[in-house]
Structures
1.
Amino acid sequence: MPGRMGLALAGAILVVAAVLLPDRAEAQFGLRGGPVGVARFAVGHVIGLSRLRHSRMAVRGGRYRSAALRSQDPRGADRSQLSNPYVMRAALTAQAALAGWQGGRRPQGWWRHPDGSYGWVGPVFWPFAHDDLTNAIIFGDTTSLSLYGYGDFYAALFTPYAATELAAYTVPPGRRARKVPTAETLCEASDTGGLPVERIASAVAPNEAQRTALDELSSAWNAARDTIRTACPAQTPGNAAERLGLMRERIEAMIKAIDTMEAPLSKFVGLLNDDQKARLNALANERRAALASYQSKNADKNDIKNASKNADKNASKDAQAAKACQADYDPVSDENAQRQYEQLLQQQWPAADIATTLHLDEVARARFEVLQDTTLRTMQTLSACPTEPAATPQARLAAVKARLQTMLQAVGAITDAFDDFQADLSDEQKAGFEAIGPKRGA
């Protein structure tokens, strides 16, 4: 394993240790599900980093910076070159997300995904939503989709943007729009492609009836994309309740999009013979092989030089990460991990400071703890150790839909808890709560 990737993985392993739930914190916040589920949530993110190592490098280098911030469709940028899709994703979302945050001066934001991309870009939640469905269903690649969860719910509650920063994403096209892309631009630009019809046709060599079914599937795929686009925010969500509502709308649109795809996909695959089905499913393996080849060719010389030197250390770290996926793993016994988790929890959820700043009474404090508990539990409900993707597109579609439905349930639960928390707050207290997130990045 390359040296720099080893360093990144080492840092990520510390994150794994930092989110292991100790007995004291579990008792304090009533987090159900236990520490093993939280550990597995983090491990899934760590292992995902192993094939996303170039993302942060691309963001820092600004390779796609101009493409990310242009008002026109950025899909033409470097289209003639073989592009790592994760690099493009991280670069586009990072540059767009940070363009409107803190005056565009910050190198990275606290709500960033582990691969360097962002689930919230200004007022837009889940850019690349349609692409993520395509990658997961057709290519068996759920890497990006699996990164959505707890961190995005937390960012919806404590937005990193101030109101004026969010407003920059909704200004009409003009001079300023070249610096801060509009929400509409983000929704358009983040869809980098639809169903790879010709690639599928090349793989399965369809007869006339099969080609007709494939064209119908392509039309359904485009209709699904339009369904997701209609959930692009026309206005900036002004508070946490509106942001949670936007999350619900976007996830509902993705589920509706999947429903649009389901019958045409089953019809097309049902017309294929066994050999054609095998060739269709082989597309997923080809994608993984192509990405691995790209990363190998673009590995830094220093990484190659240090690979042998760090091999044993990295193997040990990999084993440590994989251990948390074992059924008998008990992170509570790790006292160092307990201390790290408590520190992280206090930094991320400063309940006492929030209660003092907002002058919360005992009832409001209790309701805030319920909100905190409900949000933290999404670490378990949306966690999963890495598994092999389902063997068929239909099975993968069902798995993706199930995960989105779980996310939708989580949004509903968090929304209910948040509504209860804010029920008796004054306007001044509500405004104070909304100011917490932007202050975090100051």
2.
Amino acid sequence: MYDHRRLGRELDLFDTDPLMGAGLPYWLPDGAVVRHALEEYVREAERAAGYRHVYSPVLGKRELYEISGHWSHYSEDMFPPMELGAEEVVLRPSLCPHHALIYRSRSHSYRELPLRMAELGGMYRAELSGVLGGLTRVRSIQLNDAHIFCTLEQAVEEARAALELIGRAYADLGIRAARHRLSLPGEGGKYVADPQLWHRATALLREVLDGSGVPYDAEEGEAAFYGPKIDVQITDPAGRESTLSTVQIDFHQPGRFDLHYIGADGAKHRPIMVHRSVIGSVERAVAHLIEEHGGAFPAWLAPVQLAVLPVGQAQEERAQDVVRQAVARGLRAELHGPGDGTLGARIRAARLVPYQAVVGEREADGGLVAVRLRDGRRPGAVPAGELLDRIAARAGDRGAELWAAA
């Protein structure tokens, strides 16, 4: 059983420092590689699905969150306001109010809808120190978030497509969904008091789930304060469950921000706001991937994709040339030379690297490399260029198989 907190430090992926503060991890170079690869994957998937990306600030005036409803329903989880002259600004706990303002800043026609707006953006939650741990409970969160502004008639299809996008991402990342949950309001006063809003949104989300053929459990007390949501649940090796991805249909915030579009009849109409997150927070996603793969990431996510190991100093120059060729092709390759220990010790040290290329005297003379795969297979000696082509192809299509048949 893997613990991402231990593995993350052993593999030099991330760490914390008391002077930075609890719940505020920093990313070391290898961890930053994993994070960057994951973020780029999500951006590419979103672009292919018709999303356009924006950037918005991590601060907002208190008034913004009073309008959105966060201040009255969620302020205990927010950081205290900071005074700037006569104004109060807050570290944002959510991206949706900012995206609502971006939508509102321009007029929109029904012909533009659905308008899919995405961002990998920072947000902050004032978690108590006792619940903080590793990357799963943090105060600084990088959220893969998006908001789709659409007509009522488009809402179910857009939410269904978002759920499908989540499923494809899980397949590419090697993540298994434990179950799907329809999260409904429970007893208590943290929810928006609008029964019609809840009824309409819940009916649409049930239609999404039923139409997708996804088994789900309906549970009270897990909804967002402004509406119900579909939660995609995952479990860690200890069996603890958490939410990674969400899809929501929101009637509340479009009204709070007076959002509208011009319909075919020339009149103003209120859009629906579909919230969705493919991988949730980058921190939680990486934590789960560390534990799911035991640090042996798929080749496209691995911090180092190829370790080149010259047998002796006489082969070091040739090995370095292979590294240069790999880097020129956009691969992440490192030289593990004789100065790092015996060949056996270097092979063991690089056990989590998907590909190892051993360069002995025979290989150096023939322009070859002896290939060793992380799963223990040894395909034999191949031309260096062929190996690099194979790695680039595997990384490019994000395949799980390290050595597909030629």
3.
Amino acid sequence: MTTSTRRTAKVPAVLVLEDGRVFRGRAYGAVGETFGEAVFSTGMTGYQETLTDPSYDRQIVVATAPQIGNTGWNDEDDESRRIWVSGYVVRDPARVPSNWRAKRSLDDELVAQGIVGISGIDTRALTRHLRERGSMRAGIFSGEAVAADSELVARVQAQPHMKGASLYEEVATKETYVVPAVGEKKFTVAAIDLGIKGMTPHRMAERGIEVHVLPATASVEDVYAVNPDGVFFSNGPGDPATADGPVALMTAVLERKTPLFGICFGNQILGRALGFGTYKLKYGHRGINQPVQDRTTGKVEVTAHNHGFAVDAPLDKVSETKFGRAEVSHVCLNDNVVEGLQLLDQPAFSVQYHPEAAAGPHDAAYLFDRFTSLMSTVMEGQRA
């Protein structure tokens, strides 16, 4: 066992759900208490990318894979500057990490960043409970934070709901920074950081794009000050119904007919800008094995997801919006949730999932090429 695992392996811990269900186990990571929305992620690998994804802000993540931590923690795979999950729930923590890139154990990193977790519980039973009852508020308590069940349930029930939560400004950069193009610079993109993952601008840079990452509070003047060939809206946490600022900014971009690409939270922002509603899913999509069909090609992709909200747009028809015709371009084959939108009369599209493949499969990498194609087409039209 690692030092931190030995230190906490016998410390009692409880996971308490807002509906009164209690799971008892052992402390994992930091000892103390934490609150958040309990959700489950079906990825069998990629826990480092998951934990450092800003879209997981204020969520307690349940790993459905039975053993977590085998590859330890390295200094290369972080998707942001810190771990964002509120808490982490695992069944069987790896006693000894084994990977040539590992610098320390997962448990050590959780302790270092103050992330309270729990291990040794029946995560299958917990996942089934969340599937049946829906994602809900929860708390993890360990060591001296453990108290009577009734007291802990009351404390969990006093926490805010995820619906109505405005979180994207909490996780976004405060200052603009630039990710240079790899090789020859072909395009300039203004990327609105609503909780962006580090691999996303890297994927664009690989395609000759110089990416200017702007704060979530950026104005339309800030965006066009970089003279962008395209504008990108990132993933992020919270309820899209609270994101009036980003919706107004995207509306201004659409009015200028600048090529536009959004992912995850950015897809929901596009939906709102087009006049569609959004709603909270019962338990959401989280993992790296979600089947999505690209309806423009018929191709089925295995994709990485992390979203608890979705766009309410019709699947069976082309919709008329103030920016022209729009259609649902991608759909989840598990439950028919809208997974992508595209405008037919101007260069704008979005997807609900994570094509940067961190962690996750590379099936959706073509979406970055689709974005560059849109920018090329517009640039050629301007030169003609």
4.
Amino acid sequence: MAGLKVAVIGAGSISEMHLTSYQNHPEAELVAVCDLVEERAQQAADKFGAKKVYTDYRKLLADPEVEAVSICTWNNSHGEISIAALEAGKHVLCEKPLCTTVDKALEVEAAVRRSGKLLQVGFVRRYGTNTTVLKKFIDAGELGEIYYAKASYLRRLGNPGGWFSDIERSGGGPLLDIGVHVIDLCWYLMGRPKVKSVTGNTYKKLGNRSNVQNLSYYQAADFDASKNTVEDMANALIRFENGASLMVDVSFTLHAKSNEVAVKIFGERGGAEVEPDFTIVTEKHDTILNVTPQIDNSSFDFMAGFQNEINTFVDCCLGRAELISPVEDGVELTKIISGIYVSSEKGIEIQF
């Protein structure tokens, strides 16, 4: 018998990772799929063996058979559905971002405390093998105090359109969609220090560049070239209470030679590059060493990362593990992201 009966709310593209990972887990039983579009929910249910289909998440949450849910919906609904799920007595795995506003994130945090149920935020890059291995080195003190990090997630062409480019549903563009991944990854590896201030800039210069031909990229199912209300690009300097700092830049579209994902951290005794290739930099016997850990994937493997994330969620729900991406971290990242948007809008540094 399965140890945990789960349901997935939202059957868009990211749900495929959740559904596949639950299907692969020997102790997870997929009970139901919910989506506003019944046909899409039914297709996912048929593919992954769920026996129930819903178009109203409230009806799914009223199902006593469901013990835990993955929330894979539009960003602006994460908070509302998370709170409803917790109040219905379900454990929750909520895709990032936790919320699009700090106030709503704090409401979710309060609901977690009231309900006594678990909420895991979908910071999937924490679950990559390269991150897991590096974290052991950091926790053992081999890099010393991490005082600086730098992250880039730049797409030269890659505005997905659809709900991703509709600020009402997404809450933001590349900063909130892909920037949150690398900001969180750096912050997590830095020891999750409290944010002190942010200075940010966002730009809307290029639009979705739907005119470009001969170069393909992912487009949402509801892509509409005439609709785009999010930023093209953002950058920020984030300062923490312990004196550490993080610089980040992200884009959906940019006049760049190629796409770039780069994550680097620097400590008193050593440093590391997490992306694009995992390298640890250290010093022995007065000589600098670039150490290449021997692991199957030197950069983030999406399928393996999601499987590790789902495995951890199931283990936590069954009482066998502690959360490594709890609701409190979701709140802190929401503060950082929201602060960057406000800083850009007002042209000032935001203090916390």
